[in-house]
Write a structure and sequence with these properties.
CATH superfamily of the largest domain: Fumarylacetoacetase-like, C-terminal domain
Helix content: 10-25%
Number of domains: 2
GO molecular function: hydrolase activity; metal ion binding
Structural class: alpha+beta
Organism: Bradyrhizobium nitroreducens
Distance between the termini: 36 Å
Family: Belongs to the FAH family.
Order of helices and strands: EEEHHEHEEHHHHEEEEEEHHEHEEHEEEH
Radius of gyration: 21 Å
Number of helices: 12
Oligomer: single chain
Protein name: Fumarylacetoacetate hydrolase
Number of strands: 18
InterPro entries: FAH (IPR051121), Fumarylacetoacetase-like_C (IPR011234), Fumarylacetoacetase_C_sf (IPR036663)
């Protein structure tokens, strides 16, 4: 991992928005909730012990703006000290901007990724079979289902046609049926941030990044802001069986969120998030380069619908939750041989970027090579209590 700079982190409009992060403070052996401003990084933990608590405010952006905080340093220095290689453990470094919130994810919310899920299922986790199946699935279903409203009469008619042709799939069920796929991505507080290594199961031989918008939602179901995410996926595991979803999704360092949380305010709104353009770049040490680009506007279910299907009378989240909205880009570019498609190699650098949210940059390693996750909810509560912050 090369040393990151502020340019590798901030949105295009710099610090004009309301930006929230978390920073590890060696002097207290624990994390700080910080406001990232033009004149530095400010510790606001005394007012908001957790990002979750900040998101519970009636107007989080206004509440943060009214909090001066204590300046802990320049963003440039903190960012430069974040990557695990060469990190000075005596100086602060950046963390994922999420703490007590439950980590949730929606799947099969974009037509292109829905088709790739169907292909994974039919290929039974074998990338060599994917290209031929891709052509057949596209012939039967088409490659543009973006205007098809899930659960509509038109969608249900298509479902029956595909059943009659023996082409129905559980992924099409959640892609165009009335019920969204929403699952728990990973344990609370297990996310890695920008500049850190992201993890792949060491037994996986067919996998990919999943660039996504991550919404931050309060316990009352209010969407208060967003960040970028990489919902790292193992195509071989999930392709063999959907019952392996937890192993395909939940491994050490397999949930990346960052670089910062941008709260909704006058500079960034939910409507801006709905139109967000997200890009993907993968660079390998073998010289391989992959680029992708798409827009949240192509999503088949509105973000508010996905949030409503996650929280309500049948399920509550007292500390709020974050919700990955689903990937809009499934990389299929051949890497090693024709028809073999894409899979990660050790030390790939993955950059997920959006003009309003900055860049989330991670190096890919196997999960057992990544820094072990040791600081959980209990450790956070003990640390905050020792600092007399709760």
């Amino acid at each position: 991992m090369t040393t990151l700079t502020v340019k590798d982190l901030l949105p295009e409009d710099g610090t004009k928005g309301t930006l929230v992060g978390r920073v590890w403070l060696p002097q207290v052996n624990g994390p700080a909730v910080v406001a990232v401003r033009g004149d530095g990084v400010f510790d606001v933990t005394a007012q908001f012990p957790t990002v979750s608590a900040l998101c519970e405010e009636d107007n989080p952006a206004k509440a943060l703006a009214a909090t001066a905080g204590e300046r802990i340093g320049d963003l440039e220095a903190i960012v430069a000290n974040t990557a695990p290689d060469g990190r000075d453990p005596k100086k602060p470094w950046l963390l994922a901007p999420v703490d007590l919130q439950t980590l949730k994810a929606a799947g099969v919310t974009f037509a292109i990724s829905m088709l790739e899920r169907v292909i994974e299922e039919r290929a039974k986790g074998n990338p060599a079979s994917a290209e031929a199946i891709r052509k057949e699935v596209t012939r039967l279903i088409g490659d543009d289902l973006s205007k098809l409203k899930p659960g509509s009469d038109q969608a249900m008619h298509l479902k029956q046609v595909l059943i009659d042709q023996n082409a129905w799939s559980q992924y099409l069920e959640v892609g165009i049926g009335p019920d969204a796929e929403v699952f728990t991505k990973a344990p609370t507080m297990s996310s890695v941030g920008t500049g850190m290594d992201a993890g792949l199961h060491p037994k996986s031989t067919w996998n990919n990044p999943e660039p996504e918008l991550v919404l931050f939602v309060s316990s009352r179901g209010r969407i208060v802001g967003g960040a970028l995410g990489n919902d790292v996926n193992l195509r071989d595991f999930e392709g063999r069986s959907a019952l392996l979803l937890s192993k395909a999704k939940d491994n050490n360092a397999s949930c990346a969120i960052g670089p910062l949380l941008r709260l909704f305010d006058d500079t960034f709104t939910l409507d801006d998030a709905r139109r967000l353009d997200i890009s993907l770049n993968v660079k390998g040490t073998d010289g391989f380069v992959l680029d992708g680009h798409s827009s949240i506007s192509k999503i088949s279910r509105d973000p508010t619908d996905l949030v409503a299907q996650t929280i309500g009378k049948i399920h509550q989240y007292p500390d709020g939750f974050v919700l990955f909205l689903g990937t809009m880009f499934a990389p299929v570019k051949d890497r090693d041989a024709p028809g073999q498609g894409f899979t990660h190699k050790r030390d790939d650098i993955v950059t997920i970027a959006a003009p309003q949210l900055g860049k989330l940059v991670n190096r890919m390693r196997t999960s057992d090579e990544c820094e072990p996750w040791t600081f959980g909810i209990g450790a956070l509560m003990k640390n905050l209590a020792q600092r007399k912050l709760i």
